[in-house]
From TrEMBL, chain A:
<keyword id="KW-0812">Transmembrane</keyword>
<protein>
    <recommendedName>
        <fullName>Heme exporter protein C</fullName>
    </recommendedName>
</protein>
<dbReference type="GO" id="GO:0005886">
    <property type="term" value="C:plasma membrane"/>
</dbReference>
<dbReference type="InterPro" id="IPR003557">
    <property type="entry name" value="Cyt_c_biogenesis_CcmC"/>
</dbReference>
<dbReference type="GO" id="GO:0015232">
    <property type="term" value="F:heme transmembrane transporter activity"/>
</dbReference>
<keyword id="KW-1133">Transmembrane helix</keyword>
<dbReference type="InterPro" id="IPR045062">
    <property type="entry name" value="Cyt_c_biogenesis_CcsA/CcmC"/>
</dbReference>
Automatic annotation (TrEMBL), chain B:
<dbReference type="InterPro" id="IPR003544">
    <property type="entry name" value="Cyt_c_biogenesis_CcmB"/>
</dbReference>
<dbReference type="InterPro" id="IPR026031">
    <property type="entry name" value="Cyt_c_CcmB_bac"/>
</dbReference>
<dbReference type="Pfam" id="PF03379">
    <property type="entry name" value="CcmB"/>
</dbReference>
<keyword id="KW-1003">Cell membrane</keyword>
<keyword id="KW-0472">Membrane</keyword>
<dbReference type="GO" id="GO:0017004">
    <property type="term" value="P:cytochrome complex assembly"/>
</dbReference>
<dbReference type="GO" id="GO:0015232">
    <property type="term" value="F:heme transmembrane transporter activity"/>
</dbReference>
UniProtKB/TrEMBL annotation, chain C:
<dbReference type="Pfam" id="PF03100">
    <property type="entry name" value="CcmE"/>
</dbReference>
<feature type="binding site" description="covalent">
    <location>
        <position position="121"/>
    </location>
    <ligand>
        <name>heme</name>
    </ligand>
</feature>
<feature type="transmembrane region" description="Helical">
    <location>
        <begin position="12"/>
        <end position="31"/>
    </location>
</feature>
<keyword id="KW-0479">Metal-binding</keyword>
<keyword id="KW-0201">Cytochrome c-type biogenesis</keyword>
<dbReference type="InterPro" id="IPR012340">
    <property type="entry name" value="NA-bd_OB-fold"/>
</dbReference>
<feature type="topological domain" description="Extracellular">
    <location>
        <begin position="31"/>
        <end position="145"/>
    </location>
</feature>
Length: 241, 221, 145
């Protein structure tokens, strides 16, 4: 089956309806297991003590916060190029999830930062970039709300997503110039995964997997809602005639 | 190019004659900067420390002020449809509108900024850099603003939404603009920040008219 | 007259490309010499900032230099030059000897008086027991953040 068949709303509804329950369970279970494992069955860090355990929420939420925007970018491009409505609606559905994840990453970061760095908030490049990302999410959601015609709203938000991505990247480098930062480098990368000891690494990977599943489940759910909303609106229009 | 010159002349005349879109940004800038000492106190050391940032924030907000009318008036009375049919490409139309916006809001700020800088105890050494950074940075504000104005065209009470969309896009310009001035004020090297600021402005002028024109086409289709 | 409009648009694209190339060249020029974000003790030794100028000083807390108390005194080093620092306040958990720190303040009478002390930590996460064992064997070198 080609992925473009999902562009047909009927196919999309059928397939997403079938996988959604399993996906939700998998997401809930893996997050649950990862957090219990991470919070109660991992040792304290050699420097950070038990505060390190917020890692198991902070890293996955930050991961989703960035990748949700990337997903919206891809979905926007698909809408602009191929005009598939499901794609535009998926981008719309992902934005509030991404915004909430950004807030969660910022808040867990603040809770981590207070004992570790000695401050709740520091205008560190990475923290600031996340704050800017959050404002981008707000603007994107607000534009969707403000434009009444759904296709035009999809067009305009897609353009905003493209332009916003360029400027978000630009801001990322601008804030590096502006302040050197306390935030540690990324611990997880393909090249050097031995930064994180195995005891922390496995629950962390499980937690990230869980949050990714949660994100996909939420986006599917919200996209289904949007499609149904459109159907209801179409029915009501027909009724009114 | 007569069409372009005629359009530029029209935009400037409209901004100067009809209700002073031109003077408004400047007046706002003056008031905002003159209010700062009342808020933070008259201490010269404090004022000179925050002067670069305050002047740049003032310039940025003053630019925002008249943005929502950039395409709106022409959109409402149908002029925009006629302009789109003219020989002038839509990209050029956007660029001319942005240039006219800069001439009526950005340029007056350049002239007022040194005087206001002096009231905020900005060191003399930083004054030329303040003017240079505003001259090279504020065009980006107008072009980014034109993009935002195109996105929010036809939205009721779009002004607030326009600010929400445009302000995060202004962050890099603000950082490099204020960094140029404060580096000059504290004896650092202002050239690095000014270089990046100029790069952002050039890239904005190069790319955003095309994006804004595409947006206008989507809006009017 | 659609031909003219098209020609004009191509002219615009050419202008845009030239501006973009200029912007790229400027960015390259700007990155030519690295960007300094905080000063190290060596940089201070080379060019002493004016007394009272606020700036950020970064480096490692020198082993054996930390005197605790209401006013903390310690030395920041970059393994080349040292600079004495004093700070009245509570230092963060991760502040320890041999670890990275960034302090904000100004020089007063040859001593850096900090108004803020921040601890940098590295991106390694390791159970406490493992780190202790490694230290006993003398294998483990705490990374300098």
């Amino acid at each position: 089956m080609s992925i473009w068949e999902l562009a047909n709303p009927r196919r999309f509804m059928a397939l997403s309806g079938r996988i959604l329950p399993g996906l939700s369970w998998a997401a809930g279970l893996s997050i649950g297991i990862a957090l219990v494992w991470g919070f109660f069955f991992t040792p304290d860090d050699y420097q950070q003590g038990s505060t390190v355990k917020i890692l198991f929420i902070h890293v996955p939420t930050a991961f989703i916060a960035i990748n949700a925007w990337l997903m919206m970018l891809v979905a926007s491009l698909i809408w602009l190029i191929r005009r598939h409505h499901v794609s535009a609606l998926a981008a719309r559905a992902a934005a509030p999830v991404g915004a909430v994840m950004t807030v969660a990453a910022l808040m867990t970061g603040a809770i981590w930062g207070q004992p570790m760095w000695g401050t709740w908030w520091e205008w560190d490049p990475r923290l600031t970039s996340f704050l800017i990302l959050f404002i981008f999410y707000l603007g994107y959601i607000a534009l969707w709300q403000a434009v009444e015609d759904p296709d035009k709203a999809a067009d305009l938000t897609s353009v905003l997503c493209l332009v916003g991505s360029v400027f978000a990247l630009l801001s990322r480098y601008a804030v590096l110039f502006w302040n050197q930062g306390l935030h540690q480098g990324a611990s997880l990368s393909i090249k050097q995964e031995d930064n994180v000891a195995d005891v922390f690494f496995y629950p962390l990977v499980l937690s990230i997997t869980g949050f990714v599943l949660l994100f996909v489940a939420l986006v599917l759910l919200r996209t289904r809602t949007e499609i149904r909303l459109r159907r209801v609106r179409a029915l009501m229009l027909r009724e009114a005639r | 190019m007569t069409g372009a010159r005629a359009l530029l002349g029209r935009e400037l005349r409209l901004a100067i004659r009809s209700g002073g879109g031109a003077g408004l940004g400047l007046a706002f800038f003056l008031i905002l900067v003159l209010l700062v000492p009342f808020g933070v106190g008259p201490s010269g050391t404090v004022l000179s420390a925050i002067a670069p940032g305050m002047l740049w924030i003032g310039a940025l907000l003053a630019c925002l002020l008249s943005l929502d009318r950039l395409f709106q008036a022409d959109f409402e009375d149908g002029t925009l449809d006629i302009l789109m049919m003219s020989r002038l490409p839509l990209e050029a139309l956007v660029a001319i509108k942005a240039i006219a916006h800069w001439l009526t809001t950005g340029l007056p700020l350049l002239i007022a900024a040194p005087v206001l800088g002096a009231t905020l105890h900005l060191p003399d050494a930083a004054q030329p850099w303040l003017v240079a950074s505003l001259a090279l940075g504020t065009p980006a504000l107008s072009f980014i603003g034109a993009m935002g104005a195109a996105l929010t065209l036809g939205i009721r009470r779009g002004g607030l939404l326009l600010s929400l969309l445009v302000l995060p896009l202004y962050v890099p310009t603000l950082i490099f603009g204020a960094a140029t001035v404060s580096a000059a004020a504290t004896g650092g090297d202002p050239l690095a920040a000014l270089t990046f600021l100029t790069a952002i402005t050039l890239a904005s002028i190069a790319i955003l008219p095309f994006a804004a024109a595409a947006t206008l086409r989507l809006q009017l289709s | 007259m659609a031909g003219l409009k098209k020609k004009r648009r191509i002219q615009l694209i050419v202008i845009g490309a030239v501006l973009l190339a200029a912007a790229t060249a400027l960015v390259g020029y700007g990155f030519r010499d690295g960007i300094e974000l905080f000063k190290s003790p060596t940089q201070i030794a080379e060019a002493m900032p004016e007394e009272g100028d606020r700036f950020r000083l970064g480096g490692l807390v020198k082993e054996g230099s930390w005197e605790r108390g209401d006013v903390h005194r310690f030395t920041i080093t970059d393994m080349n030059e040292d600079f004495p620092v004093q700070f009245a306040g509570i230092v963060p958990d991760l502040f320890r000897e041999g670890q990275g720190t960034i302090v904000t303040g100004s020089i007063e009478g040859g001593i850096f008086v900090a108004t803020e002390v921040l601890a940098k930590h590295d991106e390694a996460y390791m159970p406490k027991e493992v780190a202790d064992a490694l230290k006993e064997q003398g294998v483990f070198q705490p990374a300098d953040g």
